[in-house]
Structure formats: C-alpha cells, structure tokens
Amino acid sequence: MKKFSFNKIAVLLLTLVVITSCVEDDNFEIPKGISGTTEYPNQDAQFNSISAVLGNFGSNNDEPFTYEEEGPGVSEKYTEGYVVSSDEGGNFYKELIIQDSPENPTAAIVIQADKNPLFTQYEFGRKVFVKLNGLTVGESNGVLQLGRLDGEMIDRIPNTQVQSHIIRTDEVATIIAKEVSISDFNDALESQYIKLNDMQFNSNLVVGNATTFASESNDSFDGERVLESCATGGSVILSTSTFSDFKSLNLPANRGSIEGILTRDFFDDFYTIYINTPEGINFDNELRCDPLFEDDFSAGNLNKWTTYNVAGNQEWYYNTFGNPSDSATMSGFSGGAQTNEDWLISLPIDLSDIPTAYLTFQTVKRYSGNDLEVFYATDYNGGDPTTDGTWIALSPALDTNTGSWSSWTDSGQLDVSAAAGGNLFIAFKYTSTSSSASTWEVDNVKVSAE
C-alpha cells in the first residue's frame, strides 16, 4: 500500500510539472542542476569536427550519411560546438544551431530536436557535445542538418533522446559575430552567426510608412524584408517567423549593423538571415543612404521605365518572380528562339546636385543566349535608342548560371558619375537570335550618391 501511495504522489507531481511546462510563458529560467559537464563524455570516443560531419555528406555523393549506433566494434562518436540560435524570441522552433568556435568559426550545422523550448537548457553561447551515433547528416531546404533519418527526410531527434544526444557543458562563451559582406555569402558560411555592417531596410518599408517584421496581411509563414548595404548597394532578405514574439514590432528606419544566422529560404532560392531577437539589430545612425533612384518592381509595373522594341515581337515585361519577388523580365523565346532587340530604359534620374553616383542591380539568367548589355546616357530623348542618345557601355557582373532561377548576381558598383550635373538614363539591352534566346530577370536597380 505504501508503494502504491508513493506512485500516486509521483504521478501527481509529474502531472504538475507537465502542466506547468505547457503554460505559455516567455519568462523561462535555466533549470537547476544542469550546469553542465566539465569533461568529454567518453575519453575513448572518436571526435569529429563539424567540418568533418559536413564533409561526410559531400563524400557520400551529397546523400544522407548515417552514423552507426554504438556497439561491439563501433565506437561512440561526438562533435562539439557553440549554440548560436535561440528560440526565446520564437523565431526558431525545435532546432539548435551550433558553430565550431565562438569567434571566427569555420563551420556550423543545424540540429533538429523535438524539444521546445531549447534555450532554457542550450542557451546562446553554451558549448555542447553532440553524440553522433544514430544521427544522420543530410540536406533540407538547401541547408545541412543533423537529425534522425525518416525515409529521405531529416527528422527531429525524439524528445526523450535530446539530452543523451546533445550534452550541455559548463562553458558559456561570448559569441563574436563574424563580420562579412553580402558578396561573401557562400555555402561554407551557411548557419554561421554573422554580422553585416552599414545596412538599412529598403525605403519602401520604412520611409513614409511603417512595416512590421512579420505581421503584414501578405505574410504567411515568414515575413521577408529587404535589407540593403549602404557600402555596396547589395541586398539580402531578413526572414522573420509569423510565430515570433516580435512579429508585430515595426522595422527600424535607421541604419547600422545586424547580427543573425545566415541560411537559405524554404525553397532554397536565395540566402536569408534570421535574427534571434530584435536586439541583434543595432541601427543607431539616423542618416540613411537612400538611393537617388530605385526600383524593386514591387509596384507591379514598369512605370519607372521606357520599353523600346527595336526588332522582334517580344518585349520587356513585369514579372511576379524576382529576388525575392517581382522583376523586369525579357525572353526572346516564343514557340522557339526568336530574333529580338529590346531596350529597358529608365526615366530621367536627376543628378543635378550630385557629384558622384553609382549604379547597382541584380540579374538572373536562364537558358543559353546573349548576355545583357548595360549602358548609360545623359542625352536620351525618348526615341529609338539605336539613334537617340549617346550610350556609354558599363561592365557589370552578370549571372552566368543558366540552369538556375535562384543564382541572383550582384552587378557590383558601377560608376556613372560622368552624368553628374544633369539627367542620367540607365538602359538594359536584350538581344536574341533564331538559334538561342535566354531569359533575363533584372531586379533591385539602384542609383546611389555613395
């Protein structure tokens, strides 16, 4: 009887714990008694760096690689890293991101874990050991992840196994965000905690109106907001979950630095950044670097442009696809490759009081065909550009990956300061032949004074 009574009390206490843990309360505290281990879980275990874990996927022909369960003849295997994600703000859910060093990391990886919240035990900066036996490294949405293999998918580590696979140490390091520029983005940087300097949100989002992180009527799962570099003119998307605690806050209108995790969007179309909380944004400079001219084509038209058809039946048109959406698009394909020459020419851009000016834009190319040609002029009058205007050729970087719609390429800064003191016209010239007709999308066109 005594034993039965003890079990009932235990069940009652367990029930109270479960009920308490399900209350929606953001004021979590670090549980007592889990300060963390001070030594390696198994001195005889085999250590794998995060780079080596990622490398197993590549050496397995980019197919999921599963670590064997430990047993006779199979040693325990571990990796280690520092936590750089936090679900405290609701922007991450049942995933933990670790990198191999608190400063200047060389590799990082996402761990799928069926536990919420995670930050109460694995907070930002906490060093952890990860037992690899039984886990699989594979790709999901273009990002390498660790978890349990379920068919061809990387599933979460079951809740009951999280603490045996992710072992908390007693070390909490200060994480120093890795300073990079948008042009540095590559697969090796994915999942690392990075810092971008001299950034601001696109003026359409914050100048003259207020836009939230992720509470607009067209936000479904994530709010996607365009961040621009004042230094290079390049842009990147900030993604915020519509389940985050800060989704209804307004974007800051100033300029400064932002720290977050570099990853890919859900469809693996482009790089994006997720922040842990708004404290990762330090926009303390009130002087914005808004361009003299910009068009991300989100207005749904080409009203800032003149389209001129020199040859062929196809013309430049507004397209709902872009980076991240909307673009000016031209294709000379219609039932086969067609011969075309088509110009997309900006309306006059006033540089009368500007000593220097720079053009930036992004392109994506699909299918084989001629490259775009890019020009500027100061004396165009609205006629046939082959005879109207003195067009000076520019040398931008253009997309060369004809097999992808997501290989958006920054043009680099193109100096158009020779037009200072008057009007500037920007032109994109498309040509195709009866044997090859590529598709070009142009987006995020800007002319800036710095």
Task: Considering the chains and any ligands shown, give keywords for the structure.
450 residues; mainly beta; Jelly Rolls; 4 helices
Characterise this structure.
With 450 residues, this protein is mainly β. It contains four helices and 30 strands. The strands form four sheets. Strands 1, 2, 3, 4, 5, 6, 7, 8, 9 and 10 form a ten-stranded mixed β-sheet that branches. Strands 18, 20, 21, 24, 27, 28 and 30 form a seven-stranded antiparallel β-sheet that branches. Strands 19, 22, 23, 25, 26 and 29 form a six-stranded antiparallel β-sheet that branches.
Task: Write a concise synopsis of the structure shown.
This protein has helices at residues 2-22, 50-59, 162-165, 203-206; strands at 46-47, 65-66, 77-83, 95-99, 108-112, 126-131, 136-140, 143-150, 153-155, 166-172, 178-179, 193-201, 222-229, 235-241, 255-264, 271-274, 281-285, 293-295, 305-311, 317-321, 325-331, 340-346, 349-350, 358-366, 373-377, 392-393, 409-410, 414-415, 423-432, 439-448.
Helix content: under 10%
Overall spatial form:
elongated
State Rg. 26 Å
Number of helices: 4
The major β-sheet equals: 10 strands, mixed
The count of β-strands is 30
Number of domains: 3
- Say what the CATH topology of the largest domain is: Jelly Rolls
CATH architecture of the largest domain: Sandwich
CATH class of the largest domain: Mainly Beta
Mean pLDDT, rounded to whole units?
Answer: 91
Low-confidence runs: 1-33
End-to-end C-alpha gap: 82 Å
Helix-strand makeup class: mainly beta
The share of residues in extended strands comes to: 35-45%
